[in-house]
């Protein structure tokens, strides 16, 4: 069973084309926050600008910004660093991203992963992991 979600920001939680949050996924995360730790892992390119415009909901326990950490989201060591920081076993963490290189690096570090194609698909797959 997963205890932690590590979610990409741009493309998953934030739609840059519309400059808006993915409200359906954010609201789903809110239903999980009492039982699952919800965290963000971003490259940092857009998240910094968004934080200036609008504060992120306190439901996110930690926000990891790869550029600030001197790490790359497509490198396994980034996920190993986050696993250690969270104090969790890799298999307890579910990483959600829309970029295959990032998914591959997270898998190499032992995390469970979901490739984000659309919100209904992601929520259905998260439910499967959350119920195991």
Describe the structure.
With 132 residues, the protein is an alpha/beta fold. The chain has one domain: Rossmann fold (3-Layer(aba) Sandwich). The protein is built from 6 helices and 7 strands. The chain has a 5-stranded parallel sheet with strand order 5-4-1-6-7, with helices on both faces. The protein starts with a strand and ends with a helix. 33% of the residues are buried.
Topology at a glance:
Blueprint: E1 4-8, E2 14-15, E3 20-21, H1 23-32, E4 37-42, H2 47-53, E5 60-65, H3 66-69, H4 76-86, E6 93-97, H5 100-108, E7 112-115, H6 119-131
Parallel strand pairs: 1-4, 1-6, 4-5, 6-7
Antiparallel strand pairs: 2-3
In short:
It contains six helices and seven strands, in the order βββαβαβααβαβα. The protein is α/β, with parallel strands linked by helices and 132 residues long. A five-stranded parallel β-sheet has the order 5-4-1-6-7, sandwiched between helices. The chain has a two-stranded antiparallel sheet with strand order 2-3.
């Amino acid at each position: 069973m997963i205890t932690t979600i590590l979610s990409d920001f741009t493309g998953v939680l934030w739609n840059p084309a519309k400059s808006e949050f993915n409200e359906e996924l954010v609201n789903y995360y809110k239903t999980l926050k009492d039982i699952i730790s919800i965290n963000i892992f971003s490259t940092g390119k857009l998240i910094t600008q968004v934080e200036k415009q609008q504060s992120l909901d306190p439901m996110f326990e930690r926000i990891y910004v790869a550029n600030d950490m001197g790490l790359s989201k497509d490198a396994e060591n980034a996920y190993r660093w986050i696993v250690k920081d969270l104090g969790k076993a890799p298999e307890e963490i579910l990483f959600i991203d829309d970029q295959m290189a990032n998914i591959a690096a997270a898998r190499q570090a032992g995390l469970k992963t979901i490739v984000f194609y659309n919100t209904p698909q992601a929520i259905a797959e998260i439910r499967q992991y959350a119920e195991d």
